[in-house]
Amino acid sequence: MATDDTTRATTTTTTVTRRRGAPRQRRRGERSRAASIGLHATLLVAAAIAVFPPLWLLVTSFKPKTDTFTRSLVSGFTLDNYDHVINDTEFLTWFGNSVVIVLATTVIGVFISSTTGYALSRFRFPGMRPLMWTLLLTQMFPMAVLIVPLYNLMSRYGLLNQPVGLVVTYLTIAVPFCAWMMKSFFDTIPVAIDESGRVDGLNPFGVFWRLIMPLAKPGLAVTAFYSFVTAWAEVAFATAFMTGERNLTLAGGLQTFVNQHTQDWHLMTAAAVLIAVPAILVFGYAQRHLQSGLTAGATKA
Amino acid sequence: MTSPTIASPGEAEAGATGAERARGPRRGAGGGPGRLRLALSTHWYAWAMIAPVVLVITAIIGWPLVRGVYLSLTDADEANVERTIGVNSIPATYEFIGLDNYVDILGDDAFWDRLGWTVVWTVACVAITFAIGLTLANMLNRQFRGRTAYRMALILPWAIPAFVSVFAWRMLYNERNGLLNSLLEGRGIDGIAWLSDPTWAKAAVIAVNVWLGVPFMLIAMLGALQSIPAEQYEAAEMDGASAWQRFRFITLPGVRSVSMTVVLLSTIWTFNMFPVIFLLTRGGPAGSTDILVTEAFRLAFTASPRDFANSAAWGVLILLLLVLFAISYRRALRKQGEVW
Questions:
Q1: I want to staple A231 with a disulfide (CB 3.0 to 4.6 A). Which of A73, A105, B83, B126 is the partner?
Q2: Whole-structure pTM value
């Protein structure tokens, strides 16, 4: 209703001005033709640059080995690359390794960062301020300072080449950011809800689990997405900790197609597409919440 | 009654006062078991909730950090760390050598070269990414047909794991038969050694990192732009402000606080950006694109013999640099009256 009124009001103003014989004024938010063309041209170029490399990866994955570097969009359409990657390499093992690690990281990460976020948002307790500072500081920890000592520790406790080793490592990357984000998110949920829950006889855990968590779904989506992306796309720790063909994750596996010894670009493209698709699906699901989640986290950080 | 204090979000935000007050009981002289029990019974909910995170952080960040600092003061390398060969485990034989590693590193030109390039890399990436992100966000922050489609296309690079995109770029950059050179040669221009000429390699890694970083900037800035009330623009227009003036005096101040955060975050991320350089050039040609983190990784994991002590020392130096940066950034913000 309100918007309708405004539009009507603006239209009247324009008619009035035109009747006076002045040059036609643009309505607010309206652009000249040139500006409109410029806008679309710039956005088109930017969008093309953004989309092109992945798109090229996709079209190349359907070309036979001999045509990998041809310039044409389609040449000799074939699914051989996919067939080879899935059946003749350890790709499915790597995929399985990655899925296990990512699921564990996401589930544990989301759960412990939301309990922490909730405690930080609702309770005042000794150790709260140091904890908040630690969370903030660990976000800027370079992996370079941790990777060597972690490698030595993992090797001492036999955790190299074990998914568990990577899961705990990824938790430390994902959890500080997620906890911080969940805290900002819980801050936006009125305390009155907690209080009513307490009055009705729930203990704080019950309040958290039965009342607040269901309300926090958008926040949970963002943190889950972040943990997923962190674990799915991490390279350094995965490269250092996982060796031996059957232990690799996808990040390590993709590197085996193209290196000093082999140049199997055609297989690499097929594997890359298979890795990217799940990531895009998860992203597509989470991106609705991403903007609000991010800005809530960013402005309050 | 063992009820924890429920703070309103606003109060919890202030943090300082709340924590000070809550810490009260423990501050009393001697404390005593009674006070401890009281604190425990009041706060155990909260402590139970944060326990897993505290545990993980201490185990995987605190303890390795201490060990890393210690390792950097030793001569540990592949040959003398504790290791298992078959059923025999060989005990560690490395020794404490004090600050020697640091003296070596700081006296070596290689460190300063890498540092210089790391700074150039970080500043260039963040500045370009921010400029492009803000421009595109401004363009998308209005009504027109196809807005959603553009938005989806522009954030696509974010949806794909970075290491996958890096391989896509490596294919485009391929010197002999990559698409970029094939296009250039089609027009009669000599192909460019994208990844094996030091200067072009630097430009190439920056380009890929910008490509990867723009979507995050775009979404963050779009969020910031949408939080600026439209009335401000209306009022400015009434007063006859030009488009540039509206951008300069309404948009820029409006996105300031979000910008501060995302610039800080993206500086830290870029400074530590490992996969782009590691997978695109491996730091080459001849170390010309090696930033500090890739160099630290190379020392410990791809160099032969693997030099753990030096790598740990590089790691500690990187951490010190980041801490210095964060402190001065905060100072600079404070001076400008930003509460952060």
A1: A105
A2: 0.80
